[in-house]
Amino acid sequence: MSRGIPEPKLTAMDAMIDKLTGAIFVFQIVVVMVLGIAGNVWKDTEAKKQWYVLYPDKGPWYELLIIPLRFELLCSIMIPISIKVSLDLVKGLYAKFIDWDHRMVDLETSTPSNATNTAISEDLGQVEYILTDKTGTLTENKMIFRRCCISGIFYGNENGDALKDVELLHAVSSGSPDVVQFLTIMAICNTVIPTQSKTGDILYKAQSQDEDALVQAAAHLHMVFFNKSGNILEVKFNSSVLQYEVLETLEFTSDRKRMSLVLRDCQNGKILLLSKGADEAILPYARTGMLFIYFRTTKYYFDASICLTPFLTAGQQTRNFVEAVEQYAHLGLRTLCLAWRELREDEYREWSLMFREANSTLVDREVNGILVNDILYSNSYELNFSVYYLSQWRVAEVCQRIEHNLEVLGVTAIEDRLQDGVPETIETLRKAGINFWMLTGDKQNTAIQIALSCNFISPEPKGQLLSIDGKTEDEVRRSLERVLLTMRITTSEPKDVAFVIDGWALDFALNHYRKAFTELAILSRTAICCRVTPSQKAQLVQILKSCDYRTLAIGDGGNDVRMIQQADIGVGISGREGLQAARAADYSIGKFRFLKRLILVHGRYSYNRTAFLSQYSFYKSLLICFIQIFFSFISGVSGTSLFNSVSLMAYNVFYTSVPVLVSVLDKDLSEETVIQHPQILFYCQAGRLLNPSTFAGWFGRSLFHAVVVFLISIHAYAYDKSEMEEVSMVALSGCIWLQAFVVAMETNSFTILQHLAIWGNLAGFYAINWIFSALPASGMYTIMFRLCRQPSYWISIFLMTAAGMSPILAIKYFRYTYRPSKINTLQQAERLGGPILSLGTIEPQPRPLIEKDVSTLSITQPKNRNPVYEPLLSDSPNATRRSSGTPFDFFQSQSRSSLPNYSRNCKDN
Ligand SMILES: [Mg+2]
Description:
Layout: H1 12-45, H2 63-75, H3 82-100, E1 114-115, E2 129-132, E3 139-150, E4 153-155, H4 166-173, H5 177-188, E5 193-196, E6 202-205, H6 209-220, E7 223-229, E8 232-237, E9 240-250, E10 258-265, E11 271-277, H7 279-282, H8 304-307, H9 316-330, E12 334-343, H10 345-367, H11 372-377, H12 381-402, E13 407-418, H13 422-431, E14 435-439, H14 444-453, E15 463-468, H15 473-490, E16 496-502, H16 503-512, H17 514-523, E17 526-530, H18 534-546, E18 551-555, H19 561-566, E19 569-573, H20 580-584, E20 587-589, H21 594-634, H22 645-655, H23 657-661, H24 671-676, H25 682-685, H26 692-717, H27 724-746, H28 752-774, H29 783-789, H30 791-818, H31 822-832, H32 839-842, H33 847-856
Helix pairs in contact: 1-2, 3-21, 5-6, 9-14, 10-12, 13-21, 15-16, 15-17, 21-26, 21-27, 26-27, 26-30, 27-28, 27-30
């Protein structure tokens, strides 16, 4: 299936590393130019006076370029080329960790988690917005028939299960005509195919879970759909077999929101139209006697009694259906209305001709190679979509010519249970400062109920839900303005304010009031978008991305593919709706609850590890470059290299690469602590471990270490009798020892592997150099043997390590003791082994600071993303995130309980 070519994704860290690389490149050019000029000046003024340098009086025409080019060669390793290779390697490992994580295997279906995209794991740790589908993502997509209303009588209200309702069972056994007709529609108005197993049981193959639930429920109520051969459907009811011949199938589409069958009752030869669909797709087409104008007042009110106002001569029956739909929606159940009517033979024949003609135009298009999916996902989406849409519209229009005057029989209510662990996952991730948007194709009330039950929105008084609605552009604008105004006022209050909008209003908002809607997106932590199309889902992702937020989209069906591809990170749930979403996604998981682990454990560790690895790569390259630069000051700025080429090559490839690669195993905190205290994800989201400020820290560290190594090795070994190779080897040894200690100091959790990599690497350094010292042709014959025998060598190494590490250790100790970050606090608690106290009671967050920051934030401005950078080795919690439009509640620890009495404050807005 062609979905177009998704754009390659670049993580925030990659972008930052690219920026830092650019800065280092500029620095390198400046150094080369300055030293090049200085070298030429020194050569002309001083070097030519020295007879032993043997400079010729007249050099070649490119003489001026020689020294700068030498420096360019010396400084070329300033940008570590190895960083790309190392990062690719560790990113591959991060992905493997996700694949191997046995705690993210869905045991029900034995689906392991899978990372398709190996390059963006760090972004998981920086997610700020999660846009989630509802059905199949938050819910199980395992439909269970719970209640129904047939001819105005409610079944299943007492015990919550219509299948066990004595009254309904009685009505079935007594053969009540309405109930039998209702059950017939439940059993056969679908595209389900019954098959018989070897044991004689009837199994149903259904495209949608709703249809499966209805057929199963009908079978439970003795209306057993047991055979479909060709166009003939056979149903068994109370031991008598009923046959129906399907004449036409009017398929379900998301625009029509209903499906119908035209069939002939083989018992009496009558032609019947059976329909089932959403209330707004069935009730407006009810028979004249029951006709009412189905006014979509859901846009204005939440309250059941006034939500759907029947106009004109609405009978009690109709009121009952409307009431049933609303009652069921408030319980979070999915509703379908069932209806039928008898067709006259001539009416059917006339319509049938039109229907076939309309269908043939659609079929022609499909035969011509423009398949539906291709059209929906191809690059020239808009154009093809309109062509496709026209043919679809023609079919829909013909369908509607027959789908009227319906006799509504009743309403079914199907439960789609929340997946296990969804409320906890959402609560934890919200504590981690992640905002949630729910984008669903379902009804508004059902969506709100689901949102409440999964901690998505908080009930009053903690939460407030604002509604954006309207039938016309003007109404939508006014509603949007009101909500925006309320949002601005309530931003400073510690209250969860969410907004709800439906596809219709969203269309106006996105096309005409994009700016205002974008502002709303910045202000709102939570949103519920109902009745949205796949393309609207993608547009919403785009809006959040345009505000510079890191977005994660999660969904399970083909209708989520565009949103998943559009987001920074796409997560697919490999559920009952097939693998379309999982295949298009960067990560696929079996259940929504695994998202918690994916973000807090894998995302966070990946971010931390990459932050260390990338900055360390710059540190070690800069260290050796700085030593070369310092050496030029005592070598007549001639661009002479202190180190031989073998050492330089081995430095990056062997001596310094292994220990740092093992940092992929490093864990600053245990997984349990991280999940218990999700607030610490803030450090990753705000980019606190890799930014220009922390990079400056590493830059300073390499400069300082270069000074230490250079001064000590020159003072100890640059005397008359020593060789250049000896000085070089002492300096190199100093670098290797220092980098081993730096890695050891930055490692939080030691395993045998880490010890082996760090100290084994050091031993490896000596082994390699002893081998080279044994080779007469290597240029460093006997050097290492001689050095290792001298106490002065070991004293120098000790001095370098002590002088290089002690200030860094001192800074670290000072920070750890007097200005500990939340991470340090948790580390201390872990180390002491005691119960980890609430972070809030250990060190309260200075709230006024946050509020002050928020009040100064101009909400009409796009989000300012500059986090407050702290100097050297920064990870202090005191700096708050000015970028966020809402106060970051670092210590919100109270759980959000979901109470059913959600405020219907939408009327006020
Ligand atoms: Mg879905």
